[in-house]
Amino acid sequence: MRRVEHVMGFPVSLRVDDEGAWEEPADAVFAWLREVDARFSPFRADSEVSRHGRGELGRDSLSADLAEVLDLCEHYRVATGGAFDAWLPGRGFDPCAVVKGWSVQRAARLLRTAGARRFVLNAGGDVAASGGPWRVGVRHPEQADRLCAVLELTDGAVATSARYERGDHIVDGRIGRPATGLLSMTVVAASLTEADSVATAAFALGTEGVAWAAAQPGCEVFAVDAAGQVLRTEGFPVASRSRAA
Question: Is the full-model pTM beyond 0.90?
Answer without folding.
Answer: yes
